[in-house]
Amino acid sequence: MATTLPNGKRIRQSAGTTHRQDAEALLAKIRLEAFREHHFGIKPQRTWQEAVIRYLAVKASLKSYRDVQRICRMLDPYLGTLTLNQINGDMIWFVVQERLKQGNTPATVNRYLALIRNLLKIARDEWQWIDSIPKIRLLPGEVERDRWLSREEADRLIDAAPEHLAALIRFALATGCRAREITGLEWNRVDLNRCTAWLNQTKNGTPRGVPLNKDAITVLQEQSGKHEQYCFTYRGNPIRWDLTNTAWTNAIKKAGIEDFRFHDLRHTWASWHRQAGTSCDELKDLGGWKSRNMVDRYAKFATENLAFAASRIESTRDSKVIPLSRLCHVKHADEQDKSDKPLNMLAP
């Protein structure tokens, strides 16, 4: 099938059918849409499935690509037969209610809503397939995970872990690096003299530098010579598996710790930093977050800037509260009352 569209664009493609009538119908549809777009500015109707195919191609390099695929599959029964212009507020409401009826938590439903919103924004702003999108708000009530270890709990976990896992735990607590960032760290990206490591395998795909404190340097020095390329290994081989495995499960059980994942070590590191007085802006750069919003969740751990304010009304210190405002108000009110009385009532 080959033709020249009204905008002068030449197309040549397969109609995907062996029936001439079906091919001619498809060609007529393409010509009509091109004519309406060229002469009247009416954009052709794009389907949700078309958008998903292109969206997955854009997101193919993400570490979370499988999660994106999974969410797209979950949304297909609701949106798969619709065009992008048919996805409105009512449709979003329907998707939310159906997922909640099936037992999904607000956090899970918000993952679906976030993908729909992101896909539609790209379709509008980058692909220019649509002119407007519905306003999509995430559900309230999503509880952020707030799990971190005390120093004593961390020491117990390190003591309970096997040697290779203990090294990973210590490095995570010293740097805040994610599991894949640690297992993928190579010696050619480490400079112990400058106390710096450079990560090229990050969650958001942006390489970043990581300052190494004394604890992190000690861990790396202990791993020196075990492998030519990778810093962290197990029995001479790079670690390629998920770190939340049997060794991890046994270690947290032995340490008497419950409901704790390897990624929670990053939360622990951030919480310790805020408790030690590290500012949110410093923590954002240390942890490689792109948004300040991701760091504000740890603000509750730092209250030293409010300590002096809280001490102003301590019962053990001399009160400096001046009780004049109320007295002045009462005196003024009394004077006003007297001024309103007849002169004979003011006489002795």
Could you characterize what this model shows?
The structure is a single chain. The protein has 15 helices and 7 strands. It is mainly alpha-helical and 348 residues long. It has 3 domains: 2-40, no CATH class; 64-125, no CATH class; 151-301, hpI Integrase, Chain A. α2 (48-58) runs antiparallel to α3. It is globular and about 85 Å long.
Short description:
With about 350 residues, this protein is mainly alpha-helical. The protein has helices at about 20-40, 50-60, 65-80, 90-100, 105-125, 150-160, 165-175, 180-185, 215-225, 245-255, 265-275, 280-285, 305-310, 325-340, 345; strands spanning about 1-5, 10, 190, 195-200, 210, 235, 235-240. The protein has three domains: about 1-40, no CATH class; about 65-125, no CATH class; about 150-300, Intergrase catalytic core (hpI Integrase, Chain A, Orthogonal Bundle).
The N- to C-terminal Cα distance equals: 113 Å
Q: What Rg, in angstroms, do the CA atoms define?
A: 31 Å
Strands, total number:
7
Number of helical regions: 15
Main sheet makeup: 3 strands, antiparallel
Low-confidence blocks of residues:
none
Based on helices, strands and strand pairing, what is the structural class?
mainly alpha
Examine the coordinates and then state which fold CATH places here, giving the name of the CATH topology of the largest domain.
Answer: hpI Integrase, Chain A
Which CATH C-level class of the largest domain is it?
Mainly Alpha
Looking at CATH, the homologous superfamily of the largest domain is Intergrase catalytic core
Q: Which architecture name of the largest domain does CATH use?
A: Orthogonal Bundle
Helix content: 40-55%
